[in-house]
Amino acid sequence: MLAALLGQATGCSILFVKGPPPEDERGRIVHCTESNVAPLIDMMIASYQTVRIAFALSASDADYRNSQLSRSDDVAIGASLLALFAASSIIGFHQTSACRDALLEAEYPSPPPRARPRASRPPPPRKLNPPTPAQQKLDEEEEERAVRARAADMARASRAADGPDGGAPPDDEPAVVPARPAPPATPQRADPE
């Protein structure tokens, strides 16, 4: 009789939870169970069976004297129901999670895989034309003026340290006036060919 009773028992999730169809059979609309109600009921029944088994194990054989079930039968039934409803709960949670994933995938489908972009080569380095002779001459003159100005400053500083007149230039030596700076050099453009 016990085997017949347990053979007919199934968990709520096994009876009422429907998982998503396989990926190759899914359309734009997916019909499955996304609610966790049935797995939660299975978990509560499994928890109750755990408490019931603990109570049966703590009771003595004298407590089962007037009962229709023996203590060992009660523990066996409780353990069987615990295993059944715990398994049903696990299966139910798995099915509802898969259903929610399938619904999400149906609502927001993954984009098709993209072709790998081709590796592009870096642009060739730009070639600068050498400066023109006129530009070279201007650069050299500017550098020469800067060297002369530095030399005059150093000479003045040296005389200031040595002489009593405070480093003023002598009357026979004209004061060096810095030349007007040359206009900034314009960058040479690369020849497009």
Give an overview in words.
This protein has 193 residues and is an all-alpha fold. The chain has 5 helices and no strands. It has helices spanning 2-8, 12-16, 37-58, 71-107, 133-162. The termini are far apart. Residues 1-7 have low confidence and may be disordered.
Main attributes?
193 residues; mainly alpha; 5 helices; 52% helix; elongated; disordered N terminus
Q: How many β-strands, per DSSP?
A: 0
**Mean of all residue-level pLDDT scores:** 80
- Secondary-structure element order, N to C: HHHHH
Helix segment count? 5
Structural class: mainly alpha
Low-confidence stretches: 1-7
Provide the β-strand percentage band.
under 5%
How many angstroms does the end-to-end distance come to?
98 Å
Most strands sheet? none
- Gyration radius (Cα, Å) is 48 Å
Oligomer: single chain
Helical percentage: 40-55%
Shape: elongated
Task: Give the structure's gist in a few sentences.
The chain is mainly alpha-helical.
